[in-house]
Amino acid sequence: MKKKNEPVSYAGYLQLERVLSSQSPISRERGVSAHDEMLFIVIHQTYELWFKQILHELDSVLEMFREQYIDERNIGVAVSRLQRIIEIQKIMIDQVRILETMTPLDFLDFRHFLTPASGFQSFQFRALEIKLGLSPARRIKYSQQAYHTLFSEEEQTRLLEMEKAPSFFDLLENWLERTPFLVLTGFDFLKTYREAVEKMLADERETVQHNPLLPDEEKQSRLQMMQANEKHFQTIFSEAAHNQLIGEERRRLSYRATLAALFIHLYRDQPILHLPYRLLSAVVDIDELLSTWRYRHALMVLRMIGRKTGTGGSAGYSYLKQTAESHRVFADLFNLSTFLIPRSQLPALPPEIEENLGFYFSRSKK
Amino acid sequence: MKKKNEPVSYAGYLQLERVLSSQSPISRERGVSAHDEMLFIVIHQTYELWFKQILHELDSVLEMFREQYIDERNIGVAVSRLQRIIEIQKIMIDQVRILETMTPLDFLDFRHFLTPASGFQSFQFRALEIKLGLSPARRIKYSQQAYHTLFSEEEQTRLLEMEKAPSFFDLLENWLERTPFLVLTGFDFLKTYREAVEKMLADERETVQHNPLLPDEEKQSRLQMMQANEKHFQTIFSEAAHNQLIGEERRRLSYRATLAALFIHLYRDQPILHLPYRLLSAVVDIDELLSTWRYRHALMVLRMIGRKTGTGGSAGYSYLKQTAESHRVFADLFNLSTFLIPRSQLPALPPEIEENLGFYFSRSKK
Amino acid sequence: MKKKNEPVSYAGYLQLERVLSSQSPISRERGVSAHDEMLFIVIHQTYELWFKQILHELDSVLEMFREQYIDERNIGVAVSRLQRIIEIQKIMIDQVRILETMTPLDFLDFRHFLTPASGFQSFQFRALEIKLGLSPARRIKYSQQAYHTLFSEEEQTRLLEMEKAPSFFDLLENWLERTPFLVLTGFDFLKTYREAVEKMLADERETVQHNPLLPDEEKQSRLQMMQANEKHFQTIFSEAAHNQLIGEERRRLSYRATLAALFIHLYRDQPILHLPYRLLSAVVDIDELLSTWRYRHALMVLRMIGRKTGTGGSAGYSYLKQTAESHRVFADLFNLSTFLIPRSQLPALPPEIEENLGFYFSRSKK
Amino acid sequence: MKKKNEPVSYAGYLQLERVLSSQSPISRERGVSAHDEMLFIVIHQTYELWFKQILHELDSVLEMFREQYIDERNIGVAVSRLQRIIEIQKIMIDQVRILETMTPLDFLDFRHFLTPASGFQSFQFRALEIKLGLSPARRIKYSQQAYHTLFSEEEQTRLLEMEKAPSFFDLLENWLERTPFLVLTGFDFLKTYREAVEKMLADERETVQHNPLLPDEEKQSRLQMMQANEKHFQTIFSEAAHNQLIGEERRRLSYRATLAALFIHLYRDQPILHLPYRLLSAVVDIDELLSTWRYRHALMVLRMIGRKTGTGGSAGYSYLKQTAESHRVFADLFNLSTFLIPRSQLPALPPEIEENLGFYFSRSKK
Asked: Do A108 and B288 touch (CB under 8 A)?
């Protein structure tokens, strides 16, 4: 667009002529101009611009994690870029308020022109879901319409390719599996962790059983709760139990990766685990904000069109609300908190390991 | 506390000596001071202060609506106060971010001291739910624990009294039922509305049926969707159908009140309907934000304690998530959008009525 | 772009092909791709999209106010549209956080490519300032560069035309001047207001002078403050005093318009003044948010480039900070609070006027 | 309050009986109850609660930095706590919106009761300013009233003690001065940095001078700007020049500390500098948000009381606006960006140093 050496201008650099002439309200074309259609177009365009930016960041992070050996310097960069995604997501959620200044009645002034277009046709959003790691199997079908009516053939091909490539979920899982912490000389994480948990649970039970102030009924109810918690812990002590839950689609992250993530959470005060911990936190933030955005979006749709079918024929509100819950990719990281134990109960790391954790990542050093 | 005529001081006015000395971390008392417990206390105290403020506003609005004759001046005041509740709710949601700077592991440093205290014991929040109109029947039970273990006897008495008094839902319903619009001389709203809807639906069907570009399969699928929409409309045309849905607990607002609300939505461009419309909008905003807050809160809890039982013995995350969906009080107002029709299809009001509904500011009028 | 009758698709409707291909980082073209340049482009494009939307709303409001007779229905619509501008502005301010995820060092990776482009070349922002009513005379010069180096000739012509057309400030002033409240049968606003103020000030002085608890020194200081306040009031009692302040560029809004705005503020509880009051409030909100945005922007620039000159040669931070203060258009409305008096001191409106100003919703009037 | 072993209740734990009974509107006491006074009290109480929390975090950080040797583990913790302060500040800014739902007229209903109380009497806010490092000499006097009328004797004593203790500014300066980066074997940071800058500036000048497309006038103007930038750089090359600026109160941070901060900014991609960089960034964030809060607060005051004197006799708006600019504590860190140079121009660290930077903080090893 711009010739080399030509001085850069603000409008030229941002290609404003194109960007700002890309709003053509259909209602205007049809001669019944609806004032609010401009907002509808503009806000969707900003969403798509933000999706582009999120993909730009995510792609660069995926690139880093595709490497066999990940330089610690890159973990820092990856965290910053995920942090940027997080800031964008916050704006995406808050931005819904702008759209809500359009009232349902104002929407009706042009809504009928939009059929059968639908937000579900957002290629970038679909790409984002796939790259994060939402597998086609876990995706809720949104209508009877087949996949192919939503996207052009070329787009479908590209989406299928993305589905074949390792997602952020896959790469993060690999990275976690490769971390060297779990069995270090003279330290078996799982064993010491299990002992600490069992001691903690036994102590708790004892405290309840011997509390003279607790009425019997209350005692029973507390002991029942404890049993439930103990059952949760059993599932992390045994690889077989974990894998069975994977079989039932109630977990997804591999056993080894789960243990590594747990280790990072428990010992995150160690300098070397600082960045890995922030990385996992950022991933959970992204998942949480995406879920919040879906929920917020669902409520807005409910408010805007009520129980009517969406322009693209989707089930509208109920579909969107369901995805808020089910399309969470990193639920396993969320659930990790189930397995945390207080620092005071945490087995100390052997000193030689603690020292080791002071610098491992940036090694190439003895 | 302050003697009359004594000059007011900032600290005295705000009773800061009391407020700022009301944080006593248990972990400190027990000699194992956990840095983050202060945040936990302070943020909950700010939430309770905001609840107090919300109740202050809501109570004043309830007062106004208890009057048989509601001065329109008061509608303006009521809207402003609901608007203030809305701004507070936005902060309550955003504030969750502050709590999320506490990591799950940091929480474990003092969490065990809190048992069996629980956020479900918030008297003010319970009062808020009741005053908005969450009926005991619709409330999800949050644990096996009986109601009485949560509140003191005196608190229970007060809550039961609140449950007997008319809630905001009840008062709003009454007010809507009393509005004089539905049958005005020479204008039967339901009849003209129904005719307009039926014409609109017939036109839509015709357009689809005679569209030569639509493949047959697509045509069938569209016609099916239309039928679903038509069914929705049937439920608003007939009082019996509406009442049956009330019987099935799928609707709650009385037929007459629902029609009045619909009228306000459809003709809100009339000056006199401006404030009533803003009132209904504010109510929906409050419901939506409360729901968003519950959802946000649920996610935060999931992240903080995983699938563990809450300190008070509640089912934690799953319970909270369910309330986000089910404890919506004004769902009927949300759903009104289902019955809106485009302005272009809206029957015009007879001129004498329109004049009645108007008033003029910058007149020089006739 | 789209043929008539062709079914609308999401991507086609939003012209995503154009919008999403309008990012061409110069650093990439030059072979030294800087990851963060994409963010820089995208965020500026979203700002420009929001400017377009704000102008869309503002233009429609200007249109309404250009009419000699302004239907009150339109005041309601105008308020909603200004409210939308407000929501957009909030996002524009919060969005700065996203840009701040780019560190100063990352910016340096591509900043040198941008010279001499500069945000001051934003045509839309300039148009916004002009349409709101920032007069060329009051505009702070941002650099030695002449106006014409910033915009193309065609753009300059359009800007000059805008400067000639009545701005929102002008139109609002006209509208206020035309309001019929100030002298109504049997009610002279200025006279009764002045009497009320003078009584209030006399009472205050008396209270201080006869307070036995106040030390003499304190008494003197309070009386001095009161004198300052009294001086402020003098400037509103006299048209000549007001006009002198206009001559000194310390006020801008005409005397009659100022009085009308004051009347609206003081008697805003009257139903008929509800919307006019909201209109004035929204205008102040917009001015305040614009000022906050400029300030936030200035801080961000300081942080990003320090005390260096901007890419376009502007004085960077100091210039921007100054505009936050001086480019306020509706400062006179801000200052109105100086002249408010408590409701308890407010002269009652004669009943026949009060009835005139009212209208009734929930009865079946007369 | 609570007996040992007594089961903890929500209300007891949060001392709600005290907290929620600490609101006594004066207008109510005086028999002219003003509805909005409750909001005024509650919002100020939440601000004070947040101040308490901020001080809790800041104090714990100051404690860490008082140590001669700062464990890197602690830098991580310090960053998290500063991050929490940042999240609180964001809420403090957004919360202003809640107060703005109170209109100026509503404020007048109870404002006169508050004299002479004033927000300037907030002990905690004053403590915060002192602990951050706002020196008494740099503080803008806010009125003729002497310091002692604002605080009780006991409070004054405590404030004076705080002023004597090392502030966060002092401790951060010390910490920076102690960093071992600046002269490492075989690497003289200042020398290599200076060479890089001079080469960069020479290149820039050359590019402009030989650009055939630039008109002469433009060339001159660009060269002038460059000279201004070069002058900035001179002040960082020479300790004497830097110290002179300190003498003129245009800089405050010591030369050595400034160089260390610059080093951290320039080489922050090195793993070991990751946390120090985040620390400096967080400090700048806090300063920026405090400044934004002051500005936002000033605008709100202007809007609420116009140009009137504050209840405590302060100059109100103009005073507050000035502090937004002048009470910035870490302006030197803001200004660091002036001295950054692009990564592409950055002298590479000698390999042995780079390796050294991989682990230095966590050693005391070997």
From this structure: no
Q: What is the DSSP string of C16-56?
A: HHHHTT----HHHHTT---TTHHHHHHHHHHHHHHHHHHHH
pLDDT at D182 over 60: yes
Residues A123-135 pLDDT 10s? 999 999 999 999 7
As averages over each run of 10 residues, the pLDDT of chain C (366 residues) reads 66 96 96 96 98 98 87 86 98 95 92 82 94 83 57 91 96 90 74 94 88 81 85 92 94 95 90 88 95 90 78 69 84 91 88 63 35
Domain with CATH 1.20.58.480 in chain A: 33-181+267-329
What is the average pLDDT value for chain A, to the nearest integer?
A: 86
For chain A, which residues score pLDDT lower than 70?
1-6, 140-149, 181-185, 309-315, 355-366
For residue D98, the chain B residue with the least C-alpha distance is B87
Chain region(s) in chain D for CATH 1.20.58.480:
28-165+272-323
**Best residue of A270, A343, A362, A366 to probe chain D, by most D CBs closer than 10 Å:** A362
B303 touches A at CB < 8 Å: yes
Class of domain A33-181+267-329: mainly alpha
Neighbours of A277 (CB within 10 A): 21
Q: What does the alpha-carbon distance between residue C52 and residue C47 come to, in Å, rounded to a whole number?
A: 9
> Which residues of C are less than 8 Å from D295 in CB distance?
292, 295, 324
ipTM: 0.92
Phi and psi at residue C184, to the nearest 5°: -110, 160
The predicted structure's pLDDT at residue C313: 60
Number of cross-chain residue pairs from B and D with Cβ atoms under 8 Å apart: 165
**With an 8 Å Cβ cutoff, is A145 touching chain B?**
yes
Per DSSP, B149 falls in state: G
Residue C149's pLDDT is: 66
Out of A77, A213, A271, the one facing D362 most closely (by C-beta) is A271
Fold that domain D28-165+272-323 belongs to in CATH: Methane Monooxygenase Hydroxylase; Chain G, domain 1 (1.20.58)
D156 contacts D148 by C-beta, under 8 angstroms: yes
Give Cβ neighbours of residue A166 (< 8 Å, ≥ 6 apart): A62, A66, A174
pLDDT in tens, C327-356: 889 999 988 988 999 988 998 887 777 766
Token look-up 């980082």 returns C25
The dihedral region occupied by A214, where left means phi > 0, alpha psi between -120 and 50, and beta the remainder, is beta
Q: CB contact, 8 Å: A275 with chain D?
A: yes
Condensed to tens digits (0 to 9), the pLDDT of residues C39-68 reads: 999 999 999 999 999 999 999 999 999 987
Sole residue written with tokens 């189930």: A338
Nearest to D139 by CA among D153, D159, D157: D159
Are A204 and A345 spatial neighbours (Cβ–Cβ below 8 Å)? no
Burial of B344: CB neighbours in 10 Å, binned 0-12, 13-18, 19+: exposed
Q: From B52, B42, B60, select the one nearest B123 (Cα to Cα).
A: B52
The answer to whether the CB of A97 falls within 8 A of the CB of B292 is no
CB pairs A-B closer than 8 Å: 128
CB contact under 8 A, B104 and A341: no
Task: Copy the structure tokens of residue B94.
Answer: 């955003």
Yes or no, beta carbons of B362 and C272 under 8 Å apart: no
Q: Which residues contact C307 (CB under 8 A, 6 or more apart)?
A: C316, C317, D232, D335, D338
What does the alpha-carbon distance between residue B254 and residue B262 come to, in Å, rounded to a whole number?
12
Chain C closest-CA separation from residue A101 CA (Å):
6
> By the CB < 8 Å criterion, does C295 face chain D?
yes
Mean pLDDT of chain D: 86
Question: Angle at CA D237, nearest 5°, toward D232 and D240?
Answer: 95
**Interchain pair D274, A76: CB under 8 A:** yes
